[in-house]
Amino acid sequence: MKISADLDDDTGEENDTGNQPRLVVAVDGPSGAGKSSASRGAAIALNVRYLDTGSMYRALTWWLLQRGVDTTDAGLVGELAAEPVIEVGTDPRASWTRVNGTDVSAAIRTREVTGAVSAVAAVPRVRAHLIAQQRDIIDRADGIVAEGRDIGTVVAPDAPVKVFLTADSVARADRRSAETSWSPTSTRAEQDRRDRLDAAQSGKADDAVEIDSTQLDLDQVIDIIVRLAHERVGVPHPRQQTL
Ligand code: DC
């Protein structure tokens, strides 16, 4: 089927969108707001690719920890930022993350990586390196939903659709705690710590539509994003209509 062929082709294809704006959806917001599920679901509904930029920061962190590097040593982390080959699969039904050819999709979700990643993501050379890679992936896609903290502000400021997804901090911690083995209390403490550390790298674009997901279920959030995409970009690109 064309969709899987296209989405599996991680080299991407040159864009050929004529005069129609290319569908780039930027989804930003704090951890636990439901960005990943909503972005993945919206990408499936819109028949486009999906990019989880957080997984790239996590992949670099995993590699540094494997090498025994002190992840709070910003100078050293910056020097090593470009060393590992980090790849991501952008099929929203089967995304993956690899470091030097090894699949680390599960390994990057451990508590150890989650605890160390904010410091790594705060290093300017790390951001410069990974943002360049993210822009390249976005530029080569026919259409994409990209999630992170700075997609609408820094990575893809021209994205025609920008969403800032929030939820109140109790709801966010409850969701995270349900997905992990951590208690709600320790999840909340860890979330507050990460929110503080990630704040400098996170931002809501002036033209982003804010969605508070506290009272919404996943399908409702996906529906809002899909409707925004149709409003802003119109009918899907002809290539996607044939998928
Ligand atoms: O969304 P996440 O929890 O997987 O993100 C992992 C870390 O990477 C988190 O500390 C925030 C950071 N991050 C970032 O600084 N910029 C992004 N575009 C995505 C994630």
Describe this structure in words.
- The protein is an alpha/beta fold.
- It is 49% helix and 15% strand.
- It folds into two domains: 1-6 and 23-48 and 146-233, P-loop containing nucleotide triphosphate hydrolases (Rossmann fold), CATH 3.40.50; 51-141, 3-Layer(aba) Sandwich (Rossmann fold), CATH 3.40.50.
- It has helices spanning 2-8, 35-46, 53-66, 74-80, 111-121, 124-140, 151-155, 169-179, 184-198, 218-233, 238-241, and strands spanning 23-28, 49-52, 86-89, 96-99, 102-103, 143-148, 161-166, 209-212.
- The strands form two sheets. It has a five-stranded parallel sheet, with helices on both faces. The protein has a three-stranded antiparallel sheet with strand order 3-4-5, covered by helices on one side.
- Helix 5 (111-121) runs parallel beside helix 9 (184-198).
- The radius of gyration is 17 Å and the shape is globular.
- The protein starts with a helix and ends with a helix.
- The structure holds 2'-deoxycytidine-5'-monophosphate.
- 2'-deoxycytidine-5'-monophosphate (DC) binds next to helix 3, helix 5 and helix 9.
